[in-house]
Amino acid sequence: MPVYICPNCKDRSVDIDGLEGLTGSDGLQCRRCGFGFIFQLLEDYYPAPGTGFVVCDANSRVLAAGRGVFELTGFQEDDLMGREVAEVLTLSDASPIGIVREWGVRQLGLELELTTSAAIRKPVTVDLFPAYDEDGGLLVALTPRTLDGTLAPG
After folding, report:
1. Which of 7, 11, 19, 24 could form a disulfide with 66 if both were Cys (CB 3.0 to 4.6 A apart)?
2. How deeply is 7 buried, as exposed, middle or buried, from its count of CB atoms within 10 A (0-12, 13-18, 19+)?
3. Cα(151)–Cα(153) distance, integer angstroms
4. Which domains, from first to last, does the chain contain?
5. How many CB atoms lie within 10 A of CB 142?
6. CA 135, CA 69: separation in Å to the nearest integer?
């Protein structure tokens, strides 16, 4: 059974009733908060409290940013929309995104840095998930961490 996560409220659901996508709209949306995207995962994922999600298209361009992204990066959703995620966040290593897109495998626990809107380098743990639909998008989970590698208090 497909497992879904909302990039905004982090609500997780399993499509046991077959109703996902049958709400009259073309895209899936969160039943809890109404966010315009829910993302299908192969198995469940439990993000840390301070994790922010970014939904990308097949070319890694930002389609939506969930709750927590602004708090972590300082970027409003409008600042991110349509831009390549590794470029706009200046991720210290963009190669895992290529691996996820090419091979359709997830990458978890990557200790990277991003640059905030105030040009401050910030350590983050990045989890990357490929989309399992015909659109071939990407879900990027950004979790703040301290310089010693531990998760920052959320």
Report:
1. 7
2. buried
3. 6
4. 46-144 (3.30.450.20)
5. 26
6. 23
Tokens (6 digits) for 154: 């959320």
For 58, other C-beta atoms within 10 Å of its C-beta total 13
At 20-76, the pLDDT tens digits run: 554 554 556 888 898 888 888 888 899 999 999 999 999 999 999 999 999 999 999
152: which DSSP letter?
A: P
Specify the amino acid at residue 151: L
Burial of 55 from C-beta contacts in 10 A (0-12 / 13-18 / 19+)? buried
Q: Is the pLDDT of residue 118 over 90?
A: yes
Pair of tokens at residue 91:
């991720």
pLDDT reported for residue 136: 82
> Which among 6, 128, 152, 11 is positioned nearest to 72, based on CA atoms?
152
- Ranking 35-39, 72-76, 103-107, 119-123 by mean pLDDT, the lowest is 35-39
Beta bridge partners of 39: 5
